[in-house]
Amino acid sequence: MPAITSVDELEATPHAEVFEERTPRTVRLRLEADDRVPAHRHPESNVILHLLEGEIELTLDDEVYPLESGDIAQFDGDQDISPHAIDDSTALLVFAPKIDS
């Protein structure tokens, strides 16, 4: 049977785990306008960020990428990552484990 969750019902802020099973890890990120997540890394993961609502500036190392509601970004977690909310924003992030090739 599938695990089904409503993003709107997740209450923890800024991060809420979407599913108990954490492979792949799925997180709802909610930021108020002008909130910023300090630079950090997820070196064992490829990351997908789907901005559900709002507007953010996604800093990856030294580059800044503007994202609007509906945008999806895919990137390597082995770089400095820092989202900054321009407006109140909600995103869904998936941390997919890297597979050795």
Describe, in plain words, how this protein is organized in 3D.
- By secondary structure, this protein is mainly beta.
- It has a domain at about 10-30 and about 40-80 and about 90-95: Jelly Rolls, CATH 2.60.120.
- Helix content is about 0%, strand content about 50%.
- The protein is built from no helices and 8 strands.
- It has a 5-stranded antiparallel sheet, with no helix packed on it.
- The protein is globular, with a radius of gyration of 13 Å.
- The mean pLDDT is about 90.
CATH top-level class of one domain: Mainly Beta
CATH topology of one domain: Jelly Rolls
Helix-strand pattern, N to C?
EEEEEEEE
Unreliable residue stretches: none
Shape: globular
Can you say what the CATH homologous superfamily of one domain is? Jelly Rolls
Largest sheet: 5 strands, antiparallel
Helix content class:
under 10%
Number of β-strand runs: 8
Using brief descriptors, characterize the structure shown.
globular; 101 residues; Jelly Rolls; 8 strands; single chain; 3-stranded antiparallel beta sheet
Give the topology, please.
Layout lengths: L14 E3 L7 E7 L13 E9 L1 E6 L2 E6 L3 E5 L4 E5 L3 E9 L4
Antiparallel strand pairs: 1-2, 2-8, 3-6, 3-8, 4-5, 4-7
Provide a concise account of the structure shown.
It holds the Pfam family Cupin_2. With 101 residues, the protein is an all-beta fold. The protein has strands at residues 15-17, 25-31, 45-53, 55-60, 63-68, 72-76, 81-85, 89-97.
